[in-house]
Amino acid sequence: MEADRLMRERVLSMVPQQPPFRFIDEILALDEEHIVGVYRFRSDEYFYRGHFPGLPITPGVILIETMAQTGVVAFGLYLSMLPGGKQKGIEDPITLFTLAENVEFTGVVGPGERMTITGKKVYFRGNQLKVDISMAR
């Protein structure tokens, strides 16, 4: 289990997004088929000042970015490190998020809320990763 924790920490350290634009606090689970991460939206996040004054709500684009960072970037980095993964360029990784389809928002996320992001691999071939991602309290 110590090796699993070290791998999760290694993957997290490789995610290129940095504060104030990193939306992963921790990776809880990670294997060849899925990833689970968490992020707590802090009350001092830069976007709450303007979205909306007096009624802070996490913008939908930030929620999508949060899911992408865990479910595509971190998961893609991990899969690339596995035997048969694309090792090329792993020292300086840039993982690009290219598609969000069938996105449905079912509630509002406010300051202080801890969200769990779960991604399940649909496929990973070549440099293409498709993941079914969800976010829940």
Q: Which keywords apply here?
A:
single chain; 137 residues; alpha+beta; 4-stranded antiparallel β-sheet; 2 helices; 24% strand
Write structural notes for this entry.
Helix 1 (2-14) crosses helix 2 (60-81). The protein has helices spanning 2-14, 60-81, and strands spanning 26-30, 34-40, 114-125, 128-136. The chain has 137 residues and is of the alpha+beta class. It has a 4-stranded antiparallel β-sheet. Strand 1 and strand 2 (34-40) form a beta hairpin. Helices cover 26% and strands 24% of the residues. The chain has 2 helices and 4 strands; from the N terminus they run H-E-E-H-E-E. The mean pLDDT is 90. The longest helix has 22 residues, at 60-81.
- Outline the biggest β-sheet: 4 strands, antiparallel
Query: Please, how many helices?
Result: 2
**What is the element string, with H for helices and E for strands?**
HEEHEE
Kindly provide the radius of gyration, computed on alpha-carbon positions and rounded to a whole number of angstroms: 15 Å
Based on secondary structure, the structural category is: alpha+beta
Task: Compute the number of strand runs.
Answer: 4
**Helix fraction bin:** 25-40%
Strand order of the largest sheet: 1-2-3-4
Tell me what portion of residues adopts beta-strand conformation: 15-25%
